[in-house]
Amino acid sequence: TCMSNLPAPASDPSSNPISRIVGGTNTEEGEWPWQVSLHFVGAAYCGASVISKEWLVSAAHCFQGSKLADPRAWRAHLGMQTQGRAKFVSAVRRIIVHEYYNSRNYDYDIALLQLSKPWPDTMSHVIQPICMPPFSHKVRSGDKCWITGWGQKQEADDEGSTILQKAEVEIIDQTLCHSTYGIITARMFCAGLMSGKRDGCKGDSGGPLSCQSNGGGKWFLTGIVSWGYGCGRPNFPGVYTRVSNFAPWIHKYVPSVL
User: Catalytic positions, please?
Assistant: First the structure.
């Protein structure tokens, strides 16, 4: 079953405003047990989320082009807090990019990855699936959620962070999101802070936007880090894939998760 009993992370508005994910803080080991780092020919390239023993969810744009679409070039690092110290590494058996993915506007920006070997139960203290939101799951503006990743701490960085970073963001009203970017479809939503300061960045793509259901309940994979204008810029929040829209599509390949 998916994650229901994790405590909410300690929310401290970042003491260091540029400690990545933009405006993030270091995570503890096992705090985000569904977070995955996808390595392409040996280097961290995108994030993903564990949804079952052998399936991950990521962003379609991570696998654009023939080289990136080849599962043999990828390794999935699970149960990892510090880059290079994963508790479990698996090859990737197949990559399923959504058939409607549009590389011009990032619509339908979702992909499934099947691991070559399922992660072992002995790792369950650091690896757990996140719950899939049902089709009826609502994304409400003002809700507080968390983004996590090893991407750059600021837009100008060349290197990612070595320790998994987290930042609390809020869901932004869809009308405001639409007026900011103009090309927001029903498969997208915005989250961040309109003041900037906290956001995903390059290298966080494909990773989770995790929301806890009311009253410290289950954690849901509400969004996937998709795109945005720069990183952490005022008035330009991050844009995320609305995972609930894809519940039937995911269920087609991974019947166990809903």
Answer: 61, 109, 205
